[in-house]
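User: Could you walk me through two proteins back to back? I'd like the raw sequence and the structure tokens for each, with a short line separating them so I can tell where one ends and the next begins.

Assistant: Of course. Protein one, sequence then structure:
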Amino acid sequence: MASTDSGVTGPARARIPDKTLRGDRWWLYPLATFVVFSGFVVFATWRAFQGDNFYSEPYLSPFYSPCLTDACRTAGAADFGTPFGWWSLSPALLILIFPLGFRMSCYYYRKAYYRAFWLSPPACAVAEPHQAYTGETRFPLILQNIHRYFWYAAVVVALILTWDALLAFGPAEGESDGIHMGLGTVLMVANVVLIWLYTLSCHSCRHITGGRLRHFSKHPVRYKMWTFVSRLNANHAAYAWYSLFSVAVVDFYIYLLATNAIDDPRFF
């Protein structure tokens, strides 16, 4: 429950002048999180607003998928049409709100950026600098409660990225018809696998598959689904990090291909 006197200097808290009694390097984790997240935000912002170099046949950047504007048709990446043909800004700005909203409201990511950016608290048994605590009961943090709805959008995005990964087995420009595979194909498949692991290991997915059930014995299929998701959920934090890196790696790889900085090694 929110309280205006529940901060570290509140009357109910122990009168300990030290910030923490921990003797380990507790600050390493929030510092590493701050550096990595900040770097990803800078990179993703640059790529999202660039609005170019997001497609190198047959690879489409996950930051721009699905691509729905006239710029996508010009690039040859309009697999789902151009319903937003009038959009003059970067195509990425139309769809990034969904994966971004899913990640920003994710239970694990909340812990990560609350500690790294807001120091609320920076670590276990370390006093936070804030004088009051209101939890997620006020704007804007109350919006975290819509995470379960962003999960449904994340599933749709994962399905679209799966389709993109299948298209990555197609021929590139100048190649004959048939199934082909390059390094970009491998990266896109690895990325979509990690995206699915992160999405399905979500706490909301665990609740959707097995929540509100009083007797698992009467719902054997949902019980098996819940068991599977629960096993994935144990590694949710790791999948969150891995998928974050994989999305950035795939986008940057396609950027290098689109700018002719490198060539895509083709295996067959």
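----
Protein two, same layout:
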Amino acid sequence: MDFLFNLNVQFYLAAYLLGGIPFGLILAKVFAGVNITEAGSQSIGATNVLRVVKETNPSLAKKLGAATLALDALKGIIVVLAAKYFELSDSAQWLVAVLAVVGHCFSPYMWFEGGKGVATGMGVMAVMLPVPTVIALVVWAVAAKTIRISSLSSMLGLAALVVSSFILYPAMFHAPVLFIAFILFYKHIPNFVRLVKGEEKRVA
């Protein structure tokens, strides 16, 4: 058990456990009295919180959706910033970032179910790759405003981040970026299926 006293290992565990906190589920249950894993897309993310709570309380839905988005991003930001503060190696920082996203998508508190990982993914990327993240957020915002399909907008933003990271940092080891992108893509497969069938709902 001596490995548990290793700083890197402690950060890896913290990243996974912190990333796994299902803020959307908690906020919707506490403040709206609904279980979002049993309604809408059954996701614990901000979009489903907004969609489900909006059915009964539109004004509260916006607040809870915004809070979920912020908290899901912050849990990624905080753990990676802490890794930087304690001067972990670049590779260790990237593993912390990956594990925060894995925790959100496969939460230990939800029997390894979880959210789609977009907010947490953008949170860790905002620290590790700030410029590509800004580019991704711009693409996401434009797509969200015009297309109004959350999943498609998120994937377009993700694609912009990956492409811009290769262009801006060609010498960088991109495996962690691609791994996070793969997880987010994998978690969005049900959305793609609904999109092909014309069943994916637009955000009002």
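Residues 2-197 form one domain.

Let me know if you want the two compared in more detail.
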